[in-house]
Design goal:
- By secondary structure, the chain is α/β, with parallel strands linked by helices.
- It has 2 domains: 29-55 and 68-89 and 169-250, P-loop containing nucleotide triphosphate hydrolases (Rossmann fold), CATH 3.40.50.300; 91-164, no CATH class.
- 37% of the residues lie in helices and 25% in strands.
- The protein has 9 helices and 10 strands.
- The longest helix has 17 residues, at 119-135.
Length: 250
């Protein structure tokens, strides 16, 4: 098995003359927490949408576990184990926390959302759901409708539904955006736990979080890769400092 679970080569996205992502190549190591960072306008979101197949690249290729997935859609790669949390994960406001996670468990097995099944089958799904809810620390809210959750607890639920899909790679799009300090700490810890036994690729603006949990960092500026490395090396890089503080808003 290859050291790299996700390999991107020459990824480019041209919006009618505006090149938002320009010849980007990234290799994500198996088991890593790989952060994709950069100043506003760097092309992070476009790059992430290309990797998660919500946009089709103008050029370049994407390989997952050695297989070319450039032309596959987000549903296909999710079934292969490459899951975008907070976008793909199913969270329905009128369903309880437990029901949301049970739905994700059923979806993993290609089943419809119904409870007209044998007691033993339902008990098995309930046990799996309860385990995921406990893992993200919201067991006391299991019977609460998702629509009544705080922002931080809703994000925790979204992580639970993602983990219920048993992904090999989790892709996180700004997982702590808009959170207070307490919720940021909770979600940061959840990401660290979720990364055990799997790979995480995340776009994150909060460099404090990146410094705490990332093993590898790719810095984008004006649609291109500026540098790569661990957080200590990229944070000391004069080009990175210039990009963030000196007009790198491409």
């Amino acid at each position: 098995m290859s050291e790299h679970v996700l390999e991107v080569s020459g990824l480019t996205k041209d919006f009618r003359g505006f090149v938002a992502v320009n010849d980007v190549s990234i290799s994500v190591k198996r088991g890593a927490i790989h952060a994709l960072i950069g100043p506003n306008g760097a092309g992070k979101t476009t790059c992430f949408n290309l990797l998660t197949k919500f946009l089709k690249p103008t050029a370049g290729s994407i390989r997952y576990n050695g297989k070319d997935v450039t032309d596959k859609g987000p549903d296909a790669i999710a079934r292969m184990g490459l899951v975008r949390s907070f976008q793909i994960s199913a969270v329905f406001n009128t369903l309880t926390v437990r029901e949301n996670v049970m739905l994700a468990v059923q979806r993993l097995r290609g089943e419809s959302f119904d409870f007209w099944r044998s007691k033993s089958t339902l008990n098995e799904k309930r046990e799996k759901a309860e385990a995921q809810i406990e893992a993200v620390g919201i067991s006391r809210l299991a019977d609460t409708p998702a629509g009544e959750l705080s922002y931080g607890h809703r994000r925790a639920l979204e992580i639970a539904t993602t983990l219920a899909l048993e992904p090999d790679v989790i892709l996180l799009d700004e997982p702590t955006a808009g959170m207070g300090i307490e919720d940021v700490e909770r979600i940061t810890n959840l990401i660290s736990e979720a990364a055990k036994g799997r790979t995480v690729l995340m776009v994150e603006h909060n460099l404090g979080i990146v410094s705490q949990i990332s093993t590898d960092v790719t810095v984008l500026a004006r649609g291109r890769i500026l540098t790569e490395g661990d957080y200590a090396s990229i944070s000391a890089n004069p080009e990175v400092i210039e990009a963030y503080l000196g007009g790198g808003h491409g």
